[in-house]
Amino acid sequence: MEGINTCATCHATLTDAKLRGPAKDYVTSAHRDERIGCVGCHKGDPRDPTVGAHARALGFIAHPAQSEVAGICGGCHADADFIRHVNARLPVGQYALYSLSLHGRLAAGGDERAPTCATCHGKHDVLPPASPKSPVNRANVHKLCGGCHSDAKRMSPYQIRTDQLSKWEKSVHGLAFKKGNPNAPTCNSCHGAHSATPPDASSVARACGRCHEEELALFEQSPHSKGFRRRGLAECVACHSNHDVAPASSLHVGVTPDAMCTKCHANDEKPMKVADTIAGLLRGARDRSAAARATLARARDAGLVVPGSSFALDQLSTAELKLRAVVHTLDPMRLEAPIASIDRAVAEAEKLVSDVETTRKTERRGYYVALTVAGLLFLSLLLKSLELDRRRRQGTP
Ligand code: HEC
Ligand code: HEC
Ligand code: HEC
Ligand code: HEC
Ligand code: HEC
Ligand code: HEC
Ligand code: HEC
Ligand code: HEC
Ligand code: HEC
């Protein structure tokens, strides 16, 4: 069958856009390889130059039904031998993952509201995901998933929320994505593309931890790791939420009513004590750090050049990030090391500024001395010249 595709040749000449369109789109699609052809999906006889090509006896399918599409695309994409012949690097697990997902199970039952392979990738204009024009491209996928998931009418038969897209767009993740941060998660980063399942309570931490490795490791060393599992709480999501993750600075550790710890522990003696201790340590370290930053800023505003100040600020920021991450252990002792780093950076910053100030004072003293000497010299020269002038006028040489 190689090299012969009368389906495409004839369809390219037809006047009805609905019949010609597929042949046109196919030419620039990922499927333009002649081993795929039109028959890859529609079957029929690609060597018959007449409409006899639509051979029902050869299994010709004019309009694959909703429930058939995944079998057609997946039949081929799960065939590792065939796929690897054409593209050795293409993974072959999509059909298996999709079939098990809720999307796949609903579509297999003919539910037109659930996506099939062709809903997400297109039919004749299927492109590699790396193509900016592909609906599954990283830049577009939130519009694809969100298109259905924020459509309240479409989702009305199901007991499911429709706020994921709008929340994600306003979250730290969505805002970082908008700014072009290549590591910011979009819908399929957390859900997968073909499995599209909500991570359950016991696997959320791994989904977040793919990117936040340090926080995951520290969380796993905390009493929360086991405690949350026992109670079916959704790990990271219980504190940070899933779609509307807010900046960490908005979460207060402490015992006040607005502190997050109070929401679960208002009546628990030990956790509230720990919360109070940690809150005190954080407040102290952050106050000292803020004071050091203010000192550096004042020096800069006064026009002082403080060599090494940007290095000191970097060290301060690094230590603060480390401190923040260590909060996940819930162990006040573990806060000591990063707090010591903060205090070292604070002392370093303050020393840099005071050194520069001392130097400037010395320089200034030297300057006044020099100015006085120069002034006296000038005065004596002036007196001398007046004296000479007087003598000249009196006629004495
Ligand atoms: C000689 C020209 C010609 C050839 C060759 C041809 N087709 Fe068609 N095809 C048509 C025409 C005309 C129609 C619309 C009328 C009809 O359904 O017969 C059509 C309709 C279709 C439809 C839509 C059916 C519908 O009911 O809307 C599909 C799908 C299709 N062809 C696929 C193929 C495939 C696959 C091949 C090759 C195996 C092929 N065609 C070969 C001319 C051709
Ligand atoms: C990757 C699979 C795939 C390939 C390859 C493919 N098609 Fe299709 N085609 C589909 C699917 C899926 C539909 C959608 C059926 C529907 O929505 O009713 C379809 C529908 C059509 C229709 C009906 C369009 C309409 O709007 O009613 C025509 C005509 C058609 N294909 C022709 C072709 C021709 C000609 C080729 C080769 C140039 C081709 N197809 C290659 C999957 C494919
Ligand atoms: C006859 C086998 C076959 C069928 C049926 C088929 N594909 Fe493909 N598809 C391939 C092969 C082979 C490639 C690799 C092409 C290449 O890289 O040149 C491919 C490439 C792709 C790609 C691009 C992958 C990449 O990263 O480059 C996507 C997406 C895709 N197919 C989706 C689909 C969808 C959706 C359907 C059903 C509507 C489908 N395929 C039906 C064989 C098939
Ligand atoms: C809900 C939307 C959705 C559905 C349904 C879907 N895909 Fe995908 N697909 C994606 C996204 C998003 C990507 C790209 C990113 C990724 O792989 O995570 C992708 C990537 C692919 C790729 C390229 C993989 C690669 O690594 O280059 C192939 C091939 C593919 N899909 C085939 C299929 C097949 C076959 C089906 C049906 C069995 C299907 N897809 C169903 C969204 C979907
Ligand atoms: C064509 C519309 C459509 C598209 C596109 C779509 N979905 Fe869905 N999705 C649905 C429907 C319908 C359900 C079933 C809702 C239910 O039964 O509660 C669903 C369910 C889900 C669920 C819940 C699954 C479960 O097991 O509870 C998740 C998670 C999900 N989709 C994520 C995604 C992601 C991620 C994408 C994009 C890669 C996506 N969806 C694209 C229609 C869509
Ligand atoms: C940072 C990771 C992350 C991102 C990004 C993300 N989700 Fe989710 N999503 C989750 C988690 C975790 C759950 C499960 C919540 C739980 O178990 O409490 C979930 C649940 C869902 C559900 C099930 C219904 C619900 O709201 O609980 C759907 C549908 C869904 N997400 C769609 C999307 C869509 C669409 C996008 C993109 C706009 C998206 N998600 C982006 C992590 C994410
Ligand atoms: C694909 C990678 C990725 C995944 C998965 C991911 N994140 Fe993020 N996350 C990021 C990036 C990148 C940023 C930084 C955004 C910025 O620069 O402002 C971030 C920022 C954050 C912040 C704010 C940090 C701050 O400095 O205020 C929190 C909290 C957070 N993520 C929690 C989560 C949680 C909870 C999950 C799982 C539900 C998760 N993340 C999943 C990449 C990811
Ligand atoms: C008990 C509630 C709680 C849980 C559970 C939790 N966090 Fe946090 N997380 C916090 C608090 C509180 C902060 C901010 C501490 C501060 O700055 O005062 C934070 C800060 C963060 C930050 C920003 C700090 C940094 O290092 O840049 C990220 C990212 C983060 N958490 C991710 C996660 C991940 C991933 C998980 C799951 C493995 C998780 N968190 C579990 C409460 C929690
Ligand atoms: C989403 C609810 C939730 C939040 C928010 C929360 N915790 Fe917990 N915490 C728990 C659960 C559940 C346990 C395990 C209790 C058990 O198994 O008896 C626990 C256990 C603890 C323990 C261990 C108690 C022991 O007896 O060893 C400490 C300490 C603790 N939490 C401190 C905190 C601090 C500090 C915060 C605020 C940063 C916080 N928790 C926020 C639910 C929460």
Separation, N- and C-terminal Cα atoms = 124 Å
The dominant shape is elongated
Whole-number mean pLDDT: 93
* Unreliable stretches covering 5 or more consecutive residues: none
The structural class is: mainly alpha
Q: Which small molecules are bound?
A: heme C
The major pleated sheet works out as: none
Our Rg estimate from Cα atoms comes to: 36 Å
Spell out the helices and strands N to C.
HHHHHHHHHHHHHHHHHHHHH
Task: Kindly list the characteristics that best describe this protein.
397 residues, binds heme C, 21 helices
Please describe what this structure looks like.
The protein is mainly α. The protein has 21 helices and no strands. The chain has helices spanning 6-11, 17-27, 39-42, 66-77, 80-86, 94-100, 102-108, 117-121, 141-149, 152-155, 164-170, 172-178, 187-191, 204-209, 213-220, 223-231, 235-240, 260-265, 269-301, 309-326, 336-393. The longest helix has 58 residues, at 336-393. The protein is elongated and about 135 Å long. One heme C binds next to α3, α4, α5 and α8.
